[in-house]
Predict the structure.
Amino acid sequence: MTLLAALPLAQALGPVEQQHLLAARQMQALSFAVHIPLVCFGIAFPAMVLIMEWLGQRTGDPLYRTIARRWSRVMVALFAVGVITGTVLSFEMGVLWPNFTATFGGVFGLGFAIEGFSFFMEAIFIGIYVYGWDRLSPRAHLLSGLPIIVTGFTGSWMVISVNAWMNHPGGFRLVGGRAVDIHPWRALFANDYLWHELVHMYIAGYIVTGFVVAAAYAVARLRGRWTRYERTAMAVPLTIAALAAPVQVLVGDWAAREVAKTQPVKLAAIEGLPKTTRGAPEHLLGWYQDGEVKFGIRIPKMLSLLAFHDPNAKVVGLNAAPPSQRPPINVVRFSFQTMVGIGTFLAALGALVLFLRVRRRRLPESRWFYVAVAAAGPLSYVALVSGWVTTEVGRQPWVVYRIMPTSQAVTAAGGVPVGYAGLWILYLGVGAGVVWILRRLARAPIEVPVSTAVEKEV
């Protein structure tokens, strides 16, 4: 279905504000902010566990197996938390946005069905992997972990496919407010918007997971605990994150150009570009007010160059859409610039790590390096959430871009504020439980074989 054909329907529906629209959006945002880092760990952490186990089998050094076995317990704990947050998100889709699911469930339902199948397969093989440490041969045990990586990828792929369809809908026609002539494959997998979003998120999963895990051991280093166990456990995830972070800069350029092509109003909001302009400038920092970016650093023609690789290209401005169909500009600008700023720092840190690993074949001794790695963990999470804020808030006021306004999708039922308060209580309780579990796992005795134990560095 073309966007031009969908516009008359969207205009006919009109943005009818529901009583609890803001609270519903806040509930959904809270759930995503909690669940998304767990998705990153589901994508990347099993691969890191298996790399550690493989290194142990390849080198014969039992320290790698010790690390992999301890990490597998963390993997189980985070998977269990992901079950809780994922279940909440599933309920929210139907409870908070009933008109959306009723109208378009036939379009994206296949994606969620495959995601559910992937989830159950992942749970089965996590059980086999964790309980098979002393019951399977080393090779069989390593192979039993491969389906965890595959199902973690396919599950996230399906969810991202649905999100890509919401940003660039197709594969159906609307007749009388109902989706007909549905082609799920075309909607979810032949969507040009999917591939940059999938690659961007998949690399982000390795960046976030790598830096968060490395940050935990950097903190240990800053506290004076720095045995061979900590050095080895930090080196692998830090190297993986260092490889991924610079690549994400290139993928981000690809994603920005796709946004310029398919969602030009979102790009205009990201930049705060009031009018369609040839040779559009870029503004670093600043605040959008009264039709201009104030207090920003202006770089002539840079936006045209970044968006179309042509300094004189025409960039669509906010005037291309009526005010009621523009996203909240400063929210989108701030989140995007936060993501880019942190991403640049992570890419620079990753390049430094790779340079030092190649030239010196060891990690540096400087305290400031470990301070930077410790900060990179939480900052990578902030960049991740900021990126999703840019994607989702930048699409507003549409739940399905230029087809269904978010105000038409939200429930008209009462009780949303009560549910929002209950959600906060739930997540605070779950967060406290996660902290308690991870601290217990961290304090468990490290069963390092005597032949590989090394005293602390002086």
The radius of gyration is 24 Å. Residues 1-17, 450-458 have pLDDT under 50 and may be disordered. The longest strand covers residues 173-175.
